[in-house]
Amino acid sequence: MATRQTTDIYPKPHRIERRRGTFAPPPGPLTMRLAAGPPKWVRAATAIAARQVGQAVRRKVTVKTDRRLAGCTAVLGGPGIELPGKLRAEPACPPGTADQAYQLTVDRDRIAIRAAGWAGLGHGLMALLDACPAGLRCMSIADGPRFGIRAMLLHIGYNHWRDKPSKDMVYGYSDRLRFSKPVFDEALALMARLRMNLVVLDLGDAIRYRSHPEIAVKGALTPAQLRALVAECRDLGVEPIPKLNFATTHDVWLKQYEKMVGTEPYHQVCDDLIAEAIGLFDGPRFFHIGMDEETLAHHRGLMLDHVVLREGKAWLDAVKRFDRTVRQHGARTWMWGDPLWPDRDGPTPAIPKRILLSDWNYARRMTFPTSAAIEQMGYDNVPAGANWTYDDNIALLTRFAADKLRASRNPGMLMTVWNPTVRSCRGNVLNAISLAAGVFWNPDGPSRAPWPRDHTGGRLRPRR
Question: Which CA distances in Å does 301 have to 153, 295, 387?
Fold first, then answer.
């Protein structure tokens, strides 16, 4: 078996059978037939796949909608419209992943992809793109992701730590927007190409909100520009989720309102911002409220001039208020899980079980007891790792989650980079995606993409 064949299909399929021969269609027009009704991003992926297959066999391939094809299906070459065999994905689909499973078959005269949902068909098309450089050798892949949510956190706003500028630290305050649209586009395209399917967008003061334009930094995005970013995510098959961190350790972005914590005017501003953000995202499934590291030690570490700290009932009441507002607007609250760590001072807060948690762990270790403890408490948990300290952290964390946490309580994984989405941090951002995507799909596969690529199938060229 050629090494190139094995490594070029990424993420690594759970089940692949290779056969002799290559796709060599008979002379004549080549048409890739696509079932009716796919979303925009699947249509685009089909066109890209058709072009890449055409280059591999040195023939022009056109795309045509075929209403006779049942389900989420694409077929190139071969007689008839029937598909052999039964759709099967390996392993048995964990909760929330059934629509992402696919089967790809490459025969001498036909290529067929079918899936339980359009997302699965899109993933099958990505696998077909990977097979093209190796010459489209005959094979059968039955595959599906281990985790239904394969997420990346990207920053649009970045005033979350220091309240003063810093020349030697990226975390210093800035009154200007720190966001590069080209870097964002490149990161999003790489996510889509490597089958990550959700992006958490940290907004902060980077948006000129209609409800509270006074908190916006210079050069902040308009609501229309944010809507365009959200639409771009969906056009690539990546689900966009808004995030506003209301922890008092990370709310410098709130400007004067961070000094009003606990008052009704403060909560009214937060309610307004949550409602507007949810509206700009057109009814997202989740809304991330942050709420991490609100301790005196973290405040002192940030050396803030103004310190506000909620504890006990005051902190829990704030969480419940944010959660109520989020639910009133049709989303599910998502927040960080460290307030539930067993080694925290004081009693464990009674966070409502309906809230989705992300227990962040950035260490290099084989076990992650805080995630296990949070699961035992009865919470749904999307563990979060980072390349902030160790490149191998996310692979270790993901493999622990896959082996030790129940799939019913562990719907996904989240990767963070904690760098702004700017040109100077482009390498860190793309590296984070490359490190996470493969193990999020198949924890037993390689822990880094062998070749970062964009969604068009071309290689990303390093920028000097």
Answer: 23, 10, 21
